[in-house]
Design a protein that fits this description.
The chain is mainly alpha-helical and 330 residues long. The protein contains 14 helices and no strands.
């Protein structure tokens, strides 16, 4: 009976993680559309310095009071924490620059798509575990690959809402978005391992972005525009407000989702964001509506829903399949 209760508790954790990730998608969609416009006049590394410094300043005292034991766990896992910082920093800085260069909706497709398509080998490489996929999930991954390829072609052919760009610029935006997706997948798996070891989400958020701050500072110092933005009181004031509402809060909600749900579930839920980004882009009106981009978003959204349902069914059927063995052992 105790083991049956454990399975029920794990299922509730997965459901709660799914819900937290869904909330994050809504917040992140607003963030991406807003930042896509903001980065046309403010350097991405400048926002990274402000936003991620704010994350540490807010969550460090909270974690110190709420979960001091988390820092003892982290001290024993400094290598994992270092790689979390490296992969998180690369993911966010690449993602910000991709938003500057490419239509936010396509960035979300590429960024979100890299997660479900790579998390299996990332999980095997980083965590040493194997996620077994059934026929339905394999079909969903194939469909996600097709949708991802379609989004790449839209960006490279200049058919997106951002209009025609030099091929090198479009290719750079695509590469940055895909690279950010792979990096965040590695970061997600590593973060989940730290959570499983007893690290509270607030504690990890307080130290997870130190690498991003260092990387952003290294990119800002040689830039006269970046230094000017950092020295502008008006600019920093606006960035602080935007950072708190659109980065700090979503980051924490996302961390909660990562601490509860499986990495595959988290990444698949995040892959559903492009459809919402498309609606918000229409409201914002900065970019011209593109039938090719919207078609990519609809295709990708359908594939993401398919993948989510397939994953949830796999989780639901796995426990009953193991029930007789567990009962016999109990």
């Amino acid at each position: 009976m105790a083991r049956i209760g454990t399975r029920s508790w794990q299922g509730n954790r997965e459901a709660a993680g799914f819900a937290a990730s869904l909330v994050f998608v809504c917040l992140a969609s607003v963030r991406d559309v807003y930042l896509g416009g903001l980065f046309q006049r403010v350097s991405p590394p400048v926002l990274a310095i402000v936003a991620f410094s704010l994350c540490s300043l807010i969550f460090l005292p909270i974690a110190a009071v709420k979960s001091p034991q988390s820092f003892r766990v982290l001290r024993g896992r400094l290598r994992q924490l270092l790689w979390v910082n490296v992969t998180t920093g690369l993911a966010w800085i690449s993602f910000f620059h991709a938003l500057q260069a490419t239509e936010p909706m396509l960035v979300q497709i590429l960024f979100g798509g890299a997660g479900p398509l790579t998390v299996v080998w990332v999980d095997r490489l980083v965590a040493g575990t194997t996620l077994r996929l059934g026929p339905a999930e394999r079909g969903a991954r194939l469909a996600l690959s097709v949708a991802l390829a379609a989004a790449v072609m839209v960006a490279l052919a200049g058919l997106s809402g951002a209009g025609r760009q030099p091929l090198a610029s479009a290719a750079l935006g695509v590469a940055l978005a895909l690279g950010a997706g792979v990096s965040i997948s590695v970061s997600t798996v590593l973060s989940r391992r730290l959570h499983d070891a007893g690290v509270d989400p607030a504690a990890l958020v307080s130290v997870r972005f130190l690498g991003a701050i260092v990387l952003a500072a290294a990119l800002t110092v040689p830039s006269a525009d970046g230094l000017r933005d950092l020295s502008s009181t008006r600019t920093i004031g606006g960035l602080l407000g935007a950072s708190f509402l659109l980065i700090v809060i979503p980051v924490y909600v996302s961390q909660v989702g990562i601490s509860l749900a499986s990495p595959f579930t988290v990444r698949v839920v995040l892959a559903g964001a492009p459809a919402l980004v498309f609606v918000l882009q229409l409201v914002e009106g900065r970019l011209s509506p593109s039938p090719y981009s919207s078609g990519s978003a609809l295709l990708y959204g359908a594939c993401a829903i398919w993948a989510t349902v397939a994953r949830q069914r796999a989780i639901a059927t796995a426990a009953p399949a193991r029930a007789p063995v567990l009962s016999a052992a109990g």
